[in-house]
Specification:
6-stranded parallel beta barrel, 7 strands, 17% helix
Length: 107
């Protein structure tokens, strides 16, 4: 019994470690709750992150630009607030239709 509990605990910890840096994103309505304030640009050349929205949580990769949007704040690794003003943004993103175009740029 004790060994099976230890195995279960070790497995859960490994799964958490692999998913901890994935870009699972929650959109908040309150700027004060956000980790990043995000402005959406029409142009990829202006973006810090070119984002591909995936339907599958398992596709989300750390610092890849592949984002999975969740409905639950507790599931998220990144909480964002969308702003209409570029000047107040911490992060500028542009969406892409192609997964291969997704990227995180160091600016």
């Amino acid at each position: 019994m004790k060994r099976s509990y230890q195995f279960l605990l070790a497995t859960c910890l490994m799964l958490l470690a692999f998913s901890a840096d994935a870009q699972v994103v929650y959109v908040t309505e309150w700027k004060s709750e956000a980790d990043k304030i995000v402005y959406v640009s029409e142009y990829e050349s202006e973006a810090d992150v070119v984002v591909y929205r995936t339907e599958w949580r398992t596709d989300a990769q750390p610092k890849s630009g592949i984002w999975y949007f969740t409905e639950w704040r507790n599931d998220a690794n990144l909480v964002i607030y969308f702003t209409e003003w570029r000047s107040e943004a911490d992060l500028v993103i542009a969406y892409t239709e192609w997964k291969s175009d997704a990227m995180w740029r160091n600016k």
